[in-house]
Amino acid sequence: MISVNTNRRNEVSNISFTLENGWTVSIGVSASHCCTPRTPQGFNPEREDVEVAVILPNGRWGTREVVKEVLGYDHDDDVAPHLNADEVARIIAHVQLQG
């Protein structure tokens, strides 16, 4: 399932991809997320990088572990800030292979 969520200003806030294995990758694109540029852009935002979260089928966060496995660095937050398109694609590909 793909969910596109908007904020109270009717701007796209995030896009979530829930895969067949139950894992979810959420991509934050609003001005309240850690992305570049970090300004409101209405319903068609363009970003150089985005904020990403990985949610396991049991509802727990999986971002830290996935960032370590896929991108090779320690990250101690439930969301990964400022990831570029290639990094997001690598995370989605990795998550798709789980479970």
How would you describe what is shown here?
The chain is of the alpha+beta class and 99 residues long. It has one domain. The protein is 21% helix and 27% strand. It has 2 helices and 5 strands; from the N terminus they run ββββαβα. The chain has a 5-stranded antiparallel beta sheet. Strand 1 and strand 2 (12-18) form a beta hairpin. Helix 1 (63-71) packs across helix 2 (85-96). The radius of gyration is 13 Å and the shape is globular. The two termini are 17 Å apart. The model has no long low-confidence stretch (mean pLDDT 92).
Give the key terms:
globular, alpha+beta, 5-stranded antiparallel β-sheet, 99 residues, 2 helices
Number of helices: 2
Q: What overall form do the CA principal axes indicate?
A: globular
Low-confidence stretches: none
**Distance N terminus to C terminus?**
17 Å
What is the gyration radius calculated from CA atoms?
A: 13 Å
Mean model confidence by pLDDT: 92
* Number of DSSP strand runs: 5
The portion of residues assigned to helices is 10-25%
Q: How can the largest sheet be summarized? A: 5 strands, antiparallel
Beta fraction of the residues?
A: 25-35%
* Major sheet strand order: 1-2-3-4-5
Structural class: alpha+beta
In total, how many domains does the architecture comprise? 1
Helix-strand sequence: EEEEHEH
